[in-house]
């Protein structure tokens, strides 16, 4: 077991707040690099992809290690753009703590709100770093106050900025003697007084002569999360980096627990040019070693660890073992996916996701000769980013993927050109609807020809409550259908519901197996695997399905003079509006709007507000909507009523999914 503390810290922020620059400064200040990398110059260590260097943004989450005092820090730099939020979701699942970077110029932005909600839900320790204090027009007291008010987060500043005629410096709280003259430090003291009765007495008696003693009394509350530590600085100028490094020990949880048996979580997979398929894992148990075998819960089989690497500033360093809490990269003989759990422990991540793909696009090769090559490249991209949910319809020669936004398609297009020399065309995105049963009905299937095969079942299909997903109940006795065949029925249901009678995923459905029989000679597991989709789809045909439309919850903040124009735009999009809330010269407006009506609204909103407004979208469930011509099918399938075609179709689907999974 490693003798050092091991801490995995995520660097999170809204796009362009300076995450990667801060990461590079921390590495340099800790002595891990000779010179801090630059995003502008394309020399940032954590932006390794050519696309990241050319665009100056983070696209993939990256992990890198460095040591500081008695702690091994594992920094995870995440993308800031909402279109790559799936990378943030996967990273959040392995973080011990977070540095949330906020631009002191722009303040709280839309994605800052999304990130804060996730951090609060997971109860992760966090330091807020107000970056870019060197920018013109920065008002530190205002951004400090706005953060507290908008996020309901009591802050305790560990330093405060001094900005005089273009000169920037910082005063550490413990060295400040004129607390009453400093609004930031004075607000911090008031926040501490609200959470500490002993300190409240000192505060009321104005017995605040020793700043060091004040910080000492604040530390327990900072560690418990009653107060959030805040620091000011500039990654560009290297200001405040030493103070951040010094105070990162506040993020070390006191209750880190690991298992006595080998356990790990796969949070990222990538295809490396030289080393092949690499799986990023975090260990949560006893030491993992090269050549060890460990259970893959997704594959339901043991896999062998061939090599183990660690991401260092100099590149990937091969090691023989991985200790509890450490992040490493492994190669295996089996194809494991992001989200897989290794070992017997339950490490599932049940928290709300920031990313929800509700748009689908069709991808075409500009040159027909690249058709096969494009399909294989998209399979690799889907392996690296499962949210794409890649579908390859070979009969129609079509490729379909799901996306989070238009920037993602631009990056995918560039990636196909740079990595595989494929020029691809992305058709305009379509909204991904869902289906749910309109009423209760039954679906009967008798799959018994040509022999040897035998699977007879009757399913009852019922609509479920909104947001309930898929539920399955078995009412058939094991004397009629053996448990091993029931397991195949359960296995087939997720595949079955990927396409309903209108071509969309089916949800909010309750499926009950009410009758059935097997044959002692002719039945085999594959019969029930193939028959289940036929029975369920017939039940859906009999029940009919309603279309479910994805809805965004929105929050808008802009100047009061724009309320009329914004409200008019939202009304035209059939938005459901709440009463506006007024905050000085600004208004805050919340509500819900159909995704299909609001896909292009961010562009118009930025134009209306001259880029000074804030618009936050978040998927907020689904509502029933009428099936119209403009709501075309997102995916094409084979009609379930043509049994021979359906069997071939499902066999192909099973093989395709098994190829992706195993």
UniProtKB/TrEMBL annotation:
Keyword tags: GTP-binding, Nucleotide-binding, Protein biosynthesis
Claim: Nucleotide-binding is one of the keywords in the record: yes
Keyword Nucleotide-binding found: yes
MF annotations from Gene Ontology: GTP binding; GTPase activity
Lineage: Bacteria, Pseudomonadati, Bacteroidota, Cytophagia, Cytophagales
Protein name (Swiss-Prot/TrEMBL): Tetracycline resistance protein TetQ
Pfam families tied to this protein: EFG_C (PF00679), EFG_IV (PF03764), GTP_EFTU (PF00009)
Domain Tr-type G stretches: 4-257
């Amino acid at each position: 077991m490693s003798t050092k503390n091991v801490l995995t810290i995520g660097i999170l922020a809204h796009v362009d707040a300076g995450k990667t620059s801060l990461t590079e400064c921390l590495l340099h200040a800790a002595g891990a690099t000779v010179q801090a990398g630059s995003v502008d110059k394309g020399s940032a260590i954590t932006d390794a992809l050519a696309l990241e260097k050319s665009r100056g943004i983070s696209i993939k989450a990256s992990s890198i290690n460095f040591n500081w005092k008695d702690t091994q820090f594992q920094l995870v730099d995440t993308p800031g753009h909402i279109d790559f939020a799936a990378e943030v979701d996967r990273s959040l699942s392995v973080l011990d703590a977070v540095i949330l970077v906020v631009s002191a110029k722009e303040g709280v932005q839309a994605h800052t709100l999304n990130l804060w909600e996730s951090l609060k839900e997971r109860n992760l320790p966090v330091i807020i770093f107000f970056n870019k204090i060197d920018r013109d027009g920065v008002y530190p007291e205002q951004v400090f106050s706005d953060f507290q008010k908008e996020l309901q987060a009591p802050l305790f500043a560990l330093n405060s900025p001094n900005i005089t005629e273009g000169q920037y410096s910082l005063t550490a709280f413990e060295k400040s003697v004129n607390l009453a003259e400093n609004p930031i430090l004075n607000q911090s003291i008031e926040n501490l007084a609200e959470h500490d009765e002993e300190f409240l007495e000192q505060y009321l008696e104005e017995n605040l002569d020793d700043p060091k003693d004040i910080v000492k009394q604040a530390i327990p509350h900072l560690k418990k999360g009653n107060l959030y530590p805040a620091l000011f600085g500039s990654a560009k100028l290297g200001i405040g980096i030493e103070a951040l490094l010094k105070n990162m020990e506040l993020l070390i949880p006191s209750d880190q627990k690991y298992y006595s048996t080998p356990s790990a979580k796969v949070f990222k997979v990538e295809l490396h040019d030289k080393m092949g398929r690499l799986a990023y894992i975090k260990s949560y148990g006893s030491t993992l070693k090269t050549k060890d075998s460990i259970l893959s819960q997704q594959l339901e089989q043991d896999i062998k660890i061939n090599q183990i690497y660690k991401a260092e500033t100099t590149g990937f360093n091969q090691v023989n073992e991985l200790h509890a809490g450490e992040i490493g990269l492994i190669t295996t003989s089996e194809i494991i996916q992001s989200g897989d759990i290794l070992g017997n422990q339950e490490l599932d991540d049940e928290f709300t996701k920031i990313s929800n793909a509700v748009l689908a696009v069709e991808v075409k090769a500009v040159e027909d000769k690249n058709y096969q090559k494009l399909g294989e490249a998209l399979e690799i991209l889907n392996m690296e980013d499962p949210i794409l949910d890649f579908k390859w319809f070979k009969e129609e020669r079509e490729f379909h993927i799901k996306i989070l936004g238009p920037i993602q398609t631009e990056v995918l297009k560039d990636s196909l050109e740079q990595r595989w020399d494929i020029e691809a065309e992305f058709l305009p995105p379509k909204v991904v609807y869902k289906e749910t049963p309109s009423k209760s009905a039954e679906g009967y299937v008798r799959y018994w020809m040509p022999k040897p095969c035998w699977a007879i079942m009757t399913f009852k299909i019922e609509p479920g409550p909104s947001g309930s997903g898929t539920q399955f109940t078995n009412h058939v006795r094991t004397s009629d259908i053996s448990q091993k065949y029931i397991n195949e029925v359960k296995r087939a249901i997720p595949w079955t519901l990927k396409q309903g009678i209108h071509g969309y995923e089916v949800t909010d459905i309750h499926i009950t197996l009410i009758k059935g029989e097997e044959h002692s000679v002719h039945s085999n597991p594959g019969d029930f695997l193939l028959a289940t989709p036929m029975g369920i789809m017939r039940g859906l045909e009999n029940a009919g399905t309603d279309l479910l439309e994805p809805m965004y919850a929105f929050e808008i903040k802009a100047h009061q003079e724009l309320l009329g124009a914004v409200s008019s735009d939202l009304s035209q999009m059939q938005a459901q509006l709440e009463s506006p809330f007024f905050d000085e010269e600004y208004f805050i407006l919340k509500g819900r709007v159909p995704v299909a009506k609001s896909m292009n609204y961010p562009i118009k909103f930025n134009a209306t507000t001259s880029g000074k407004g804030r618009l936050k979208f978040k998927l907020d469930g689904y509502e029933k909507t009428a099936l119209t011509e403009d709501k075309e099918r997102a995916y094409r399938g084979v009609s379930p009523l043509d049994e021979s075609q359906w069997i071939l179709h499902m066999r192909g689907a099973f093989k395709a999914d098994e190829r992706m999974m195993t």
